[in-house]
Amino acid sequence: MHIRTRLRRAMALPVAAALLLSACSGGTGQDGPIVVGGLFTNTPIPFGVSAQAIAQGVFDQVNAEGGIKGRTIEYLTADDANQSATASASARRFVDEGAVAVVGSASLIDCSANAAFYTQSSIMAIDGVGANLPCFQSSNIAAVNIGPFNSITAILEYSASELGNVAQCLFSAPGEGADLAVAVFERSTGQKLAIYDTSLPPTGEGDYTGLIVRAKNAGCDAVVFLGTDSQSVAFINAGVSQGMTDIDYLLSSNAFTAGLLSALGDKGLHIYLPSEFNPFFVDDQANKEWKALADKVGADYSSFGQGSYLASTWLVAVLRSIDGDITRESVTQALLMGDPFQTSMVGQPLVFGDASTHAPNLSYKVVTIAGGAWALAEDGFRSLSEPVK
Amino acid sequence: MLTISTTIAGLANGGVYALLGLCALITFKLLAVVDFTFTAVGALGAYAMVMLYEVNVPLWIAVPAGIATGMAVHLLVGVVMVHYFSEGRAEVKAAVTITMFTAFIALGGMLFGVSRPRDFPDPFRFAAVELGGVTITWTVIVVALLAVLFTVLPALVLRRTRIGLLLRAVAARPMTAQLIGVPAGRLALGVWAITGGAVALAMMVIAPSVPNDFSSLGLLLTWAFAAALVGGFTSLVGALVGGFALGALQGFLASFPELSVYRSVLPLLVIVLVLFWRQRHARWDATA
């Protein structure tokens, strides 16, 4: 018994040391695959399903072409089920299994659950979809989309400068992000909103006519409604019933869906929303490669897929740029160096860098509905005056 | 003036809550089951209709097909309830329907997309009348009329017809009714089917004016129960009035920026107060 205990103690030290070393270095040795993590909310709602398929597709393609310096990429993914505990456990698994970075994630909970852990573990995350404010407030996370709150500033600025709207009314659910976004808009334009109402219940409600009547009464020439596509359709339908067909309806980027188009496409309304990337309905050179990949992996064309494509191709470029060993340290170092990643899917080169927070993409295109289909309101990318953070 | 306008707007839309509240109450009165599945069943019926409509099936076929879907699904719920839980306690029956509700919402999400809105046909969308600066559409009037119909018709059937008498007997004393030869099981299944069809029709009329992705339609359940509770889960007229009152209160609150945020909370508070008021003569130490 005594000998066995001594033996165990003797073995415990080198085993622990080996584990510690592998955890610190990242990767599974210099010949094994390069391990990369990706976290997605796929249940109870399939938020990240298409993003995951696209990111996996990018890495499969790289592997099929011979990998990076002869090493394949192993993409560790997890469904966090919108649960903090699951998200934390998954992130820890990525780090334990030697991930060099976390990439392509489209999760509703990742940033709030794991931002501190990523910093503590010195691992960088390039998110495909930054779903909430913590994704834009961490030194170790850079989301390639402009984010829900920058979207609010974006559409308000467009409405004021291009559509000439003065009396803008905004309805949203309560939250710090909306307050910050409106503050940025008011600072950059000197305009005040005619109505700023953050009383929308997060689960939606039966009827929006009361709010519409208020907007009508206040003489709003543009109404910003920040809800899901389903809530936006109900809100706009209530507006149409009350004869508000000539005003501009401005929506958030999460209403940029096929469902919204099919429900409102033929009504001849003025609907505008910001697209966080070169819009997915455009068939041009910028969209050619990710659309071909989406077709190959059977994913829908969506901005989530675009985000995760951008994030993964960005990481692949970073991995290719590293001269020495590809480890967590070298990947983190390369991202901190901030070499710009050139892409025509957004309006500016993407840079990670060593800032305390990241918003690499501040460009957007405004889309509208014309003749029953999505259309560009204008050709080029616009840029936000300043990020919400 | 703004307050009057938003209150009128809310009142007009209260028909939605009233109609669904009545559906909840009718099932309870006829079957003695607090049925949590009915909004999801109605949503399945309405979605069957809209899926057909989207592939250009004419409404005169799509609407009956949707109603038939609602009837079939609710009948299925009824078969489970009648065969396995007819002798069960009320809370067990309610728990079973809650479980089935969750399953239906998941199923609907898989079949029709989790948050995808649909272009429900709205043949009555045109303005009917202008009231206090608010345009009342024919849809609003049709919903309100349907709510009145759902109040009057079950009351007439229950009070004036032989089948109504049998239904009351089955709801009150299922075992006794069966012993004296009332075909309780078949009657109950018939009621499950008919209420399924009725709620599917109600959902089709409501869907164009509310967030109509599958889960949002299913979750109208809470407002339906709230309306039914105003009538103490016994009075059809109470549920009718309750639904409109809930809508009016929401509309009233929408006109005050500082109160607006509470408009989805305050009506529920009112329900609690109504329940306290109704129970004011109850003796808490009395045994049931």
Structure description:
The complex is a heterodimer of chains A (389) and B (288). Chain A is of the alpha/beta class. Helices cover 42% and strands 16% of the residues of chain A. Chain A has 12 helices and 15 strands. Chain A has helices at residues 2-25, 49-64, 84-96, 110-120, 148-161, 176-189, 209-217, 229-241, 258-264, 285-297, 303-321, 328-337; strands at 34-40, 73-79, 101-103, 106-107, 125-127, 129-130, 141-143, 168-171, 195-197, 222-225, 248-251, 270-275, 363-370, 373-376, 382-383. In chain A, the strands form 3 sheets. In chain A, strands 8, 9, 10, 11, 12, 13, 14 and 15 form an 8-stranded mixed β-sheet that branches. In chain A, strands 2-1-3-5-7 form a 5-stranded parallel β-sheet, sandwiched between helices. In chain A, strands 4-6 form a two-stranded parallel sheet. In chain A, a hairpin with a 2-residue loop joins strand 13 (363-370) and strand 14. In chain A, helix 2 (49-64) crosses helix 10 (285-297) and helix 5 (148-161) runs parallel beside helix 6 (176-189). The model of chain A is unreliable at 13-27 (pLDDT under 50). Chain B has 13 helices and 2 strands, in the order ααααββααααααααα. Helices cover 73% and strands 3% of the residues of chain B. A two-stranded antiparallel sheet of chain B has the order 1-2. By secondary structure, chain B is mainly α. In chain B, a hairpin with a 2-residue loop joins strand 1 and strand 2 (134-137). At the A-B interface, helix 7, helix 8 and helix 9 of A face helix 1, strand 2 and helix 11 of B.
Concise account of the structure shown:
Chain A is of the alpha/beta class and 389 residues long. Chain A has helices at residues 2-25, 49-64, 84-96, 110-120, 148-161, 176-189, 209-217, 229-241, 258-264, 285-297, 303-321, 328-337, and strands at residues 34-40, 73-79, 101-103, 106-107, 125-127, 129-130, 141-143, 168-171, 195-197, 222-225, 248-251, 270-275, 363-370, 373-376, 382-383. The relative contact order of chain A is 0.14.
